[in-house]
Amino acid sequence: MLSTPQHLEIILKGMLVKPLRRIFARSFFSSALLPTFLAGVAILGNGCASYAPRSLVIRQSTLPTVMTVGNPQTIDLRIVSFNVWGLPGWMNGASENRYPRIAEQLEELQPDLVLLQEVWTKRAMASSPTGREWSTAWSSGQANLFKENGLLTISRHPILGGEFHPFRAAALPDSLVKKGALKVTIELPDGFRLNVWNVHLQAGGSDAIRSRQVAELVNWVNAARDGQIADVVAGDFNCTPESQQYQTLLQQIGPSVQAISGEPGFTTFDGLSTRSGAGKILDHAFIRIVSAVEGVKASPRAIFTERRMKDRISDHLGVDIALKFALSPQPSRSIESFASGSPPASMRFHAASP
């Protein structure tokens, strides 16, 4: 018998999908259709407000796993984080032909991991590289129309498992979907494990909401016990390095890759505007060391930086991060990150308690 809130949500979503599709097929909203639209979006996006972690749908690579180690004392990783602006075309006016272009450019970059945000629709899923070497993970139990959390993680390394954590704190319009953090545990050479968190925080001016989301995120990351040597926490945080939310992440998770690199930050969002002051630094990555790592070197750079706005594939720029983990023979010792190039010469921090 269908009596649980989850079953009720499935029934309601099924009833609303057809009328919503008819509404979206129109070029305008009549007054008669508007209530159905608003109710449908609220239910499809927010469901019955279940905040329990969700399991993942994991599509593993179909190629044999081959682990190679160039230097047994280090692990090199290249990670791309990118908000693909995957809203339906009737909402943002952007061509959906850009999604295959995103996938092609990601393939050309050859990263080890790709973290995509705002993959809201099935068409936006075409942003994902499709080669047989990739494993892909997204949250289970999502709506038909919107993907709800919009998070998609793609890896050349085997994905051992993970889960999606929805934020309890949210404000409109983001409360119509389920933003949160998608965690995957990947297997690195020599059996080392790494937790990778793909994150998307509240947009707009809701600092209080973002602070509550950061507190939730910090609790999830610090509570993770997956045998990982470190946690990489990256994505669209919708806050600048000057914000209190960013400072909390530095203090309670670990240094950002920008701080580790010793290089100045760069614009990651401009809303496709050329006006002065439009550019902001909203996309970040933080490193939490747990064990077996003596130091971390990071080199981030902006990608998808076409000069002409009409050639851009998103309202965000991508972030491409080269990471080098120096392995420690004594996992419990203090950790020192080593900056590339000039000062800061070093930044000391300690491994988190396992």
Q: Can you give a write-up of this model?
A:
With 354 residues, the protein is α+β, with helices and mostly antiparallel strands. It has two domains: 5-44, no CATH class; 51-349, Deoxyribonuclease I, Chain A (4-Layer Sandwich), CATH 3.60.10.10. It is built from seven helices and 14 strands. It has helices at 5-25, 34-46, 89-92, 98-109, 207-223, 244-252, 257-261, and strands at 56-59, 74-83, 113-117, 135-139, 152-155, 159-166, 180-187, 193-200, 228-236, 283-289, 293-303, 318-327, 335-338, 346-349. The strands form three sheets. A seven-stranded mixed beta sheet has the order 1-4-5-3-2-12-11. The protein has a five-stranded mixed beta sheet with strand order 6-7-8-9-10, covered by helices on one side. The chain has a two-stranded antiparallel sheet with strand order 13-14. β8, α5 (207-223) and β9 (228-236) form a beta-alpha-beta unit. It is globular and about 55 Å long. Mean pLDDT is 83; it is low at 1-18, 23-31 and 331-350.
